[in-house]
Amino acid sequence: MHPLQTRFDALVGAVGAPPDVDAPAATPRAELGAKLQSLAVDLAAEALPWRAEAPPYTRHLLARSAQTGATLYAVAWCEGATSPVHDHETWGLVAVVRGALTEERWRRAEPAPPRVTGPAGALVRGARTGLQPSDLLAFPAGHVHAVTGRGSALSLHLYGGLQRAYLRFDLSAGTQTLVPDSDAAAV
Ligand SMILES: [Fe+2]
Fold first, then answer.
1. CA-CA distance, 153 to 96, in Å (whole number)?
2. CA–centroid distance, residue 45 to ligand 1 (Å)
3. Residue 24 — pLDDT band, cuts 50, 70, 90?
4. pLDDT tens by residue, 77-115
């Protein structure tokens, strides 16, 4: 067990119960972000066991709430690796332990189609943001983005509820594919 396991468990335990986390507009609470950042700072001072085992990154599950499905992952990135463009079923918080991340986000130009494989609807490229240690990325459910890791990046990801599947977008084809969540899933 990791020495900070009790803090991992406490963090996912601090996530509120459904239906709050499943509401379409649900967003993470500020105090959860502060706790995640504090955890990232403390972990940065340690020798950590989590490695990138295969491109583009490896997710290491640190804690899961049996009540809400909230999960905390450490994500170890291969150099320069980028996630697919994807959405999230729940809100998320991301803090950088070491290295750096770049997030590119997209916004929907029209109401989102059903979360099934098929036409994606219009997506417009939005902001590109660099994230260093001590920065925090917060996004609501339905957020669409792609994330790149640099400098042997290691990041902490807190998700607010069950992630049964995510949408992977093919922007040139204008399509979306519903992908079951797994350890190799998008981050
Ligand atoms: Fe993501």
1. 8
2. 26
3. low
4. 999 999 999 999 888 999 999 999 999 999 999 999 999
Q: Ligand 1 centroid vs 152 CA: distance in angstroms?
A: 18
Task: Please tell me the distance between residue 12's alpha carbon and the centre of ligand 1 in angstroms.
Answer: 18
The confidence score (pLDDT) of residue 25 equals 54
Determine the distance separating the centroid of ligand 1 and the alpha carbon of 87, expressed in angstroms. Answer: 6
pLDDT digits 0-9 by tens, 147-166: 999 999 999 999 988 888 99
Expressed in angstroms and rounded, the spacing between residue 143 Cα and the centre of ligand 1 is: 8
Structural domains of the chain, ranges and CATH numbers in brackets? 5-102+127-163 (2.60.120.10)
Rounded CA-CA distance 117/76 in Å is 28
Distance (angstroms) between ligand 1 centre and the Cα of 47 equals 26
